[in-house]
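Support request from a user on the community tier.

User writes: "When I paste my structure tokens into the form, the page sometimes reloads and wipes my input. The last time it worked, I copied everything first. Here is what I submitted, just in case something in the input itself triggers the reload:"
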């Protein structure tokens, strides 16, 4: 413990890094298609409710746990009690698994920046087939994935201030500018108002239990919660920062980008008469189609800008996922940063190769009925994050001292946090119950039962062996 642990250099730098983590594929790729598939405005209202009630509380809790302990996920839990180490370990494992597919999609985004200029838009009717051919190819997507992962390695190897913080400070403002430019262009298309109507007039008759589940899962994923990511980022915060206020700002930024991404895409869909329910291919198939119809030189430029936006958003998120694992190795095993980055990313690269190939040549290789890509995705998104968030709420509510939490959230009583009691009771009593309900409903509703049971077993095994971590 002689070496001084790194801290963020400035408040702005921290906010850009934390918002950078939150704003990612979840906002720009997943949120629009989930909204489309779940009936538009009604889904958005429920999502906003989940974010305000659960997401904001858990983010505040993660910041508090991180800064209090001054350690990344595993160390932070370990400080509460050895019995809790497994919850941190689950977070590290989730980081690994999300990084087992996230860079694959990040690579697709990079490829599409280039493809926007190399003829993709020339044949609008072939864009769907082109996407299918691209992601199932054995070599091309791997090359992009490796380039993408190397950029992550370069950033995280440089450390907190000159790596992650510096990247966030440049890229997050860029992201807002590009998003504004695209909205400006698509909102002025003829017929755009239909899209706005779909987005803002709720039809609650389409809402089912599944809608709530989708909204809650999306809130966790999009806000980077449930795996100690914000614990890790909080651990680099200095004692003067106001935690509840920062949690509110990051949550607001993340939510605004998700809403803006929807605002950028839906009016254009309506204008060109494209169905909003297109699913996961929405961004990669429909967006280039929209810009192809725009034609001229403007089309390719806007298409490239859109994928640059997606790439930037993804990059500042995957950097945070890599950092969760790296920070664990540094804190708990005294590993040197660069070494931790290289070892971790090498394992992630292997997982990503499997994920990418599972789209094509390896589609026959299945674990619990799904390919590698879906295996990593479903395991984290549908099980680990929600359970991780629930465990954090229980740990904070029942195993940490209320006075300590109050002390941390009010900076030793020097600032006021009027909503403390509300936050505390929501986190302690309401959130674990709601998450237990989601987990139960999720496990009973989902098709991949074997995978769900496997996920729960992994958590049990972690709980038994976590003392060694
Ligand atoms: N929030 C990011 C997105 O929306 C993904 C992400 C980064 C994440 N770090 C995380 C998700 C930690 C869960 C936990 O794309």
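"...and here is what came back when it finally went through:"
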């Amino acid at each position: 413990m002689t070496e001084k642990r790194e801290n963020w250099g400035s408040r702005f730098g921290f906010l850009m890094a934390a918002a950078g983590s939150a704003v990612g594929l979840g906002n720009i790729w997943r949120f629009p298609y989930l909204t489309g598939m779940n009936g538009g405005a009604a889904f958005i209202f429920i999502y906003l409710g989940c974010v305000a009630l659960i997401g904001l509380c858990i983010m505040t809790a993660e910041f508090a746990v991180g800064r209090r302990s001054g350690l990344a996920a595993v160390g932070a839990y370990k400080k509460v009690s050895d019995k809790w180490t497994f919850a941190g370990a689950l977070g590290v494992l989730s980081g690994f698994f999300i990084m087992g597919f996230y860079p694959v999609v990040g690579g697709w985004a990079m490829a599409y920046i280039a493809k926007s200029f190399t003829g993709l838009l020339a044949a609008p009717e072939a864009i769907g087939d082109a996407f299918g051919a691209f992601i199932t190819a054995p070599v091309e997507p791997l090359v992009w994935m490796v380039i993408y992962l190397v950029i992550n390695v370069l950033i995280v190897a440089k450390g907190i201030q000159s790596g992650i913080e510096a990247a966030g400070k440049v890229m997050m403002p860029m992201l807002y500018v590009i998003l504004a430019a695209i909205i400006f262009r698509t909102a002025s298309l003829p017929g755009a108002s239909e899209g706005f109507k779909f987005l803002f007039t709720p039809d609650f008759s389409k809402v089912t239990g599944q809608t709530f589940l989708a909204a809650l899962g999306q809130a966790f994923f999009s806000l980077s919660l449930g795996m100690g990511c914000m614990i890790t980022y909080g651990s680099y915060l200095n004692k003067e920062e106001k935690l509840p206020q920062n949690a509110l700002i990051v949550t607001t930024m993340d939510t605004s980008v998700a809403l803006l991404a929807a605002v950028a895409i839906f009016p254009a869909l309506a204008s060109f008469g494209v169905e909003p329910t297109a699913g996961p291919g929405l961004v990669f198939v429909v967006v280039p189609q929209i810009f192809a119809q725009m034609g001229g030189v403007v089309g390719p430029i806007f298409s490239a800008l859109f994928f640059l936006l997606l790439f930037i958003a993804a990059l500042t998120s995957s950097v945070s996922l890599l950092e969760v694992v790296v920070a664990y190795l540094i804190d708990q095993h005294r590993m040197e940063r660069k070494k931790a980055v290289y070892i971790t990313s090498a394992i992630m690269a292997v997982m990503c190769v499997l994920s990418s190939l599972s789209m094509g040549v390896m589609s026959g290789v299945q674990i619990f009925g799904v390919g590698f890509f879906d295996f990593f995705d479903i395991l984290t998104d549908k099980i680990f994050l929600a359970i991780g968030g629930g465990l954090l709420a229980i740990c904070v509510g029942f195993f940490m001292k209320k006075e300590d939490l109050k002390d941390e959230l009010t900076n030793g009583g020097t600032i006021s946090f009027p909503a403390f009691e509300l936050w505390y009771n929501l986190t302690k009593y309401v959130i674990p119950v709601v998450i237990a309900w989601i987990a139960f409903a999720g496990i009973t509703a989902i098709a991949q039962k074997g995978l769900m049971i496997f996920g729960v077993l992994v958590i049990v095994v972690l709980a038994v062996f976590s003392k060694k971590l």
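Agent notes: The reload is a front-end session timeout and is unrelated to the input. The pocket of tryptophan is lined by residues 21-22, 24-27, 98, 221-222, 224, 226-227, 229, 317, 320-321, 385 (CB under 6 Å). The chain is about 75% helix and 0% strand. Escalated to web team.
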